[in-house]
Amino acid sequence: MVRLPVWLPSAAMFCFSVIAMSQQPALTPEGSYSATQLPISIGGHPVISLSQARPADPSRPAIIQAEIVPGMGMNIYQLRAWLPGKGVIEMLEAPPIEAATHSARVGGGILLPWANRMRGKVSADEKTLETRALGRKLILPANRRGKEPGAERHSIHGLFLARAMDRVETFSAADHASVAGSLDAGDFNGHWLSKTQVAVTAMLKQGTFAFDVVAKNTGSEPLPVGIGWHPFFLYPSGQRGQVRLRLPARRRALVNNYDDVFPTGQLVAVKGTRYDFSPHGGAPLNDLYLDDCFVDLERTAEGHTVAELSDPAARYGVRIRATSPQVRAIQVFAPLTRKVVAVEPQFNLADPFGKVWGPEVDTGMVTLRPGESVTYSVRLELFVP
Questions:
Q1: In a domain, 143, yes or no
Q2: String of DSSP letters for 354-374
Q3: Which of 70, 80, 224, 277 is least surrounded, with the fewest CB atoms within 10 Å of its CB?
């Protein structure tokens, strides 16, 4: 059985709460929480809304609502926050939940059993590609290509995004609201090694949001696992130039271009360059386009990796705290044409089994023996910059 994260009471996996449905649940009274099924089903499961009251102190920002889609890989589809001076804002770029689609381009998709890109020999019909992991052949969906003529098809964002959970349970108490989903993914329809059981838990508590992803090897062979998260954070002011990013990274991975975004195998220092976001308080984005993998991460005394995205013009900041020691990279996507910044803590570098990486580079994939599990954990906190 997959072990529950310590911050989720064990009752959450055994006591299913049947809660009255409403389109937009009212905010709960101060000090109480709710976990509500919305009257919208995707992938055979209702969308779950976790909510709590606005803070008693209106000058304190807080995350007050989360929409989770169990039928779409437990996608953290929308987060809403109370922001002093602005009221309730949406934190993630996503259309209304009624228009949700299976896409990594909206909300916050969970990436598993690998994050980022994977290259290989593309089939004649360009629907699949062949690569190798742990000495074994893998056939993966070739689900992306760049926009330039002749761009190479590749596989991106793992195999979990569109999967519906086998079991979904909700729980609410005086101090938190949470939802748990579990899936026996097997070998991901023949695309992956061994067998994987996945458990995702998400919690709203005291103005913060947290989630854990547990992957367990339930097969008889070694299981390679990489886990990541793909949230498209909005910045409320819409003024990109002054938005600041802080990344605890010493190096970044060079890519062939920003169309393919394939790693070259070279890791270069960021200090003294436009890509250095490591100082306290970070550095402004200005007009810099980013689709880069940052590595060689500094950690806090607790072993956490902490990134920050702040919008001083809106007096808004979100702290992305990855507590898993296996997180080795942060992918950042900051386009010039959309008012979003994706800050993606992940276990693995792009194309982790690619030949471009020499034997001296640990590309971050975790190998689980039969019966072993690994946990990916992220917590979001708001602050005033």
A1: yes
A2: -TTS-TT----PEEEPTT-EE
A3: 80
Handedness of CA 132, 187, 345, 301 (dihedral sign): negative
CATH number reported for the structural domain that contains residue 214 in this entry: 2.70.98.10
Taking the C-alpha atoms of residue 356 and residue 286, their distance in angstroms, rounded to an integer, is: 31
3 state SS of 224 = strand
- The string of pLDDT tens digits covering residues 41-91 is 999 999 999 999 988 888 999 999 999 999 999 999 999 999 998 999 999
Q: Residue range 195-202: average pLDDT?
A: 98
Amino acid at 337: T
3-state secondary structure of 10: helix
96 in a structural domain: yes
Domain hosting residue 201, numbered range? 10-383
Residue 5 has pLDDT above 60, yes or no: no
Average pLDDT over residues 278-296: 97
The DSSP code for 187 is: T
> How far is 13 from 5, CA to CA, in rounded Å?
11
